[in-house]
């Protein structure tokens, strides 16, 4: 590989999410979220792990922010816990919750690190789930109200506001396959959730524009790179269906102001989409300054003949076929390795392909990689080091793939490694470690893995080591 050098001003960052790191689940007036309920329900998470304590970031935030400086980062992507700001999901704010994020943002600014705040990284206040959750239209209105309160308080001290992280996960894993909170398995409800998340994005986006006109507005999507098993018409059509459900169900309303016709036709047996009201799609299409892209791996599909036993690997290492509502005729195939500890195949070329697709379809929209990283079984050596060579290799190859897309014209402004710290990896609890900084959960001690040292060399030289 010849020298890979990034342009001056390219933003290097790292990302986290509130429920995955904060802990302090019952402190300072925080209310319960769907992830508290879900993780406390037996059988839902590996080893019954919960986010009650997590990486104790709520108490250690100041030291954790100093790590960002030590890593030479330009930006920090974090999420705001709605149940800290508005414990029941509506009504007056909980000032202690707002103050926590206000202090965090002020400290980032003191350190010269750009705050990139996500309003929703999956922790819906439980009261709103009890009232129907994302399949209920009112949740979108509640989200806009929450946005008004927290954006009103933090304003344009936050450099970039992101409405949602991966609404695909909230809708399909939360309401179709049920492997994420709230764990419901209601195909029509999942598509209603898709729509109300799109609508909520548009409503909150307008609030952000009004209350923080100097801030950048964004959303983060986990767009899927879907490959057909062959170039037969049937396999290509299977890939088209999944592209509609996974990608264009969000890109359509948010960027083009309309749902794709093939999505509505493919899912006609599941729902008539009557929850989409006049004007909703235009509302969802609030103009964005930047699109956040999360990328981990690829997905391989083929048409199912309806006879042979159906494989339901989906490139993410576990069965969640039932997430793909209305796609009974599609089969998800296992992919060639190597794999990460999540069972996800490692395919850096997929990232180049995704960035170039977005550049081709939305040439004027700047892109930001808001998550990329890998879980591996890290070993702490007797002298306390963590030689995570496979993570370094994963990061190096994906950052090179980003550079390749940029060389071919993609307008990529920055890269955030997932994650700053080992944390609560949702249904996998503390068993899967994504951090470039190791967390010893017994002592909460933080230790740099080799990948953190490697990343620091990159962030301080702009040259891929
Ligand atoms: C993303 N899938 O989650 C999230 O934004 C992070 O909070 C998370 O820790 C990270 O990626 C690693 O998992 C995903 O099953 C979770 O396809 C599951 C899937 C995709 C993304």
From TrEMBL:
<keyword id="KW-0136">Cellulose degradation</keyword>
<feature type="active site" description="Nucleophile">
    <location>
        <position position="371"/>
    </location>
</feature>
<comment type="similarity">
    <text>Belongs to the glycosyl hydrolase 1 family.</text>
</comment>
<dbReference type="InterPro" id="IPR001360">
    <property type="entry name" value="Glyco_hydro_1"/>
</dbReference>
<dbReference type="GO" id="GO:0005829">
    <property type="term" value="C:cytosol"/>
</dbReference>
<dbReference type="InterPro" id="IPR033132">
    <property type="entry name" value="GH_1_N_CS"/>
</dbReference>
<feature type="binding site">
    <location>
        <position position="418"/>
    </location>
    <ligand>
        <name>substrate</name>
    </ligand>
</feature>
<dbReference type="InterPro" id="IPR017853">
    <property type="entry name" value="GH"/>
</dbReference>
<keyword id="KW-0624">Polysaccharide degradation</keyword>
<keyword id="KW-0119">Carbohydrate metabolism</keyword>
<feature type="binding site">
    <location>
        <position position="20"/>
    </location>
    <ligand>
        <name>substrate</name>
    </ligand>
</feature>
<protein>
    <recommendedName>
        <fullName>Beta-glucosidase</fullName>
        <ecNumber>3.2.1.21</ecNumber>
    </recommendedName>
</protein>
<dbReference type="GO" id="GO:0030245">
    <property type="term" value="P:cellulose catabolic process"/>
</dbReference>
<dbReference type="InterPro" id="IPR017736">
    <property type="entry name" value="Glyco_hydro_1_beta-glucosidase"/>
</dbReference>
<feature type="binding site">
    <location>
        <position position="296"/>
    </location>
    <ligand>
        <name>substrate</name>
    </ligand>
</feature>
<keyword id="KW-0326">Glycosidase</keyword>
<feature type="binding site">
    <location>
        <position position="165"/>
    </location>
    <ligand>
        <name>substrate</name>
    </ligand>
</feature>
<feature type="binding site">
    <location>
        <begin position="425"/>
        <end position="426"/>
    </location>
    <ligand>
        <name>substrate</name>
    </ligand>
</feature>
<keyword id="KW-0378">Hydrolase</keyword>
<feature type="binding site">
    <location>
        <position position="121"/>
    </location>
    <ligand>
        <name>substrate</name>
    </ligand>
</feature>
<dbReference type="Pfam" id="PF00232">
    <property type="entry name" value="Glyco_hydro_1"/>
</dbReference>
<feature type="active site" description="Proton donor">
    <location>
        <position position="166"/>
    </location>
</feature>
<dbReference type="GO" id="GO:0008422">
    <property type="term" value="F:beta-glucosidase activity"/>
</dbReference>
């Amino acid at each position: 590989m010849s020298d890979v050098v990034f342009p001056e001003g390219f933003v290097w960052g790292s990302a986290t999410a509130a429920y995955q790191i904060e802990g302090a689940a019952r402190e300072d007036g925080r209310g319960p979220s769907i992830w508290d309920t879900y993780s406390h329900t037996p059988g839902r998470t590996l080893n019954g792990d919960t986010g009650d304590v997590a990486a104790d970031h709520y108490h250690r935030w100041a030291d954790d922010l100093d790590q960002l400086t030590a890593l030479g980062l330009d930006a920090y992507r974090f999420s705001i816990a709605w149940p800290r700001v508005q414990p029941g999901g509506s009504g007056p704010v909980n000032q202690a919750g707002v103050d926590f994020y206000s202090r965090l943002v002020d400290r980032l600014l003191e350190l010269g690190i750009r705050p990139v705040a996500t309003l929703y990284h999956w922790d819906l206040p439980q009261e709103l789930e009890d009232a129907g959750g994302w399949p209920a239209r009112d949740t979108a209105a509640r989200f806009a109200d929450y946005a008004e309160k927290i954006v009103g308080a933090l304003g344009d001290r936050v450099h970039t506001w992101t409405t949602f992280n991966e609404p695909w996960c909230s809708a399909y894993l939360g309401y179709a396959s049920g492997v994420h909170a709230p764990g419901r398995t209601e195909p029509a409800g999942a598509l209603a959730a898709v729509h109300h998340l799109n609508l909520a994005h548009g409503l909150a986006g307008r609030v952000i524009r009004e209350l923080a006109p100097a801030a950048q507005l964004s959303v983060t999507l986990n767009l899927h790179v879907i490959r057909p098993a062959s170039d037969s018409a049937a396999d290509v059509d299977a890939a088209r269906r999944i592209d509609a459900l996974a990608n264009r169900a969000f890109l359509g309303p948010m960027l083009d102001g309309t749902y794709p016709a093939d999505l509505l036709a493919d899912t006609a047996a599941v729902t008539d989409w009557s929850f989409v009201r006049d004007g909703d799609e235009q509302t969802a299409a609030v103009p964005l300054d930047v699109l956040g892209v999360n990328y981990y791996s690829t997905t391989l599909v083929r048409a199912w003949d309806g006879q042979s036993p159906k494989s339901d690997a989906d490139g993410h290492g576990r069965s969640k076929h039932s997430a793909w509502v209305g796609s009974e005729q599609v089969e998800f195939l296992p992919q060639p390795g190597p794999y990460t500890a999540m069972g996800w195949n490692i395919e850096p070329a997929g990232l180049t392909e995704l960035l170039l697709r977005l550049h081709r379809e939305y040439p004027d929209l700047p892109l930001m990689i808001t998550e990329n990283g890998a879980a591996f079984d890290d070993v702490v050596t007797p002298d306390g080091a963590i030689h995570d060579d496979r993570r370094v290799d994963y990061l190096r190859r994906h950052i090179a793939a980003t550079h390749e897309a940029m060389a071919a014209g993609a307008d990529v402004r920055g890269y955030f490694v997932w994650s700053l710290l080992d944390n609560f990896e949702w249904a996998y609890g503390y068993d899967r470690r994504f951090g470039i900084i190791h967390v010893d959960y017994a002592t909460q001690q933080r230790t740099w893995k080799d990948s953190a040292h490697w990343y620091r060399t990159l962030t301080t030289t702009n040259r891929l080591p």
